[in-house]
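Data card: per-record layout.
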Amino acid sequence: MTDSIDPRTPGPVLGQLIGVPFGFLGRIGYTGLVGFGRDLSWTVPGSSDTATGSELALHIECPFRIVQHGRIFVGSDDMVPTRRGNPPKGEDERLQFDTGAEALQEYLDRMAPKVLTVERAPEGDLRIMMEHGIRVDILPTSSKRKESWRFLVRFGEHVVFPPSEN
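The structure for this 166-residue chain is written out next.
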């Protein structure tokens, strides 16, 4: 489904975020993950493994940041190693982003801020405003036709920017 690109309205798919709590911030590699709503579990196709994820989620490949009351709390530029040199085994994959995401997760678990508004610009910018002065800003910066971000309704519709040319 293609969503509206009118910046005054998020469209029917992204509009599902309104009123839903922000519940998760994390990453897979250098892809940011932002989750909303309750956690769902499912069996991974072709295996007996179980996966868990938020019912609504953003997978972000471009610059993004989480802001609270005008202060950048954590962002994509924080995806740099926490330790320099030769860190002990296991600590070599830890990024500054992880430390910020963990601190934010504690806050989200206590406060569960709900989404108030979603704004989408034609050039792909996405701004999600929440209670307690929290905001997610997603800022595509490449002219290449590669995926910058994807919003998904788990087991349902996806909105991808830039949209595919199919």
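Known properties of this structure: Residues 1-8 have pLDDT under 50 and may be disordered. Residues 58 and 151 are 4 Å apart (CA to CA).

See the next section for split statistics.
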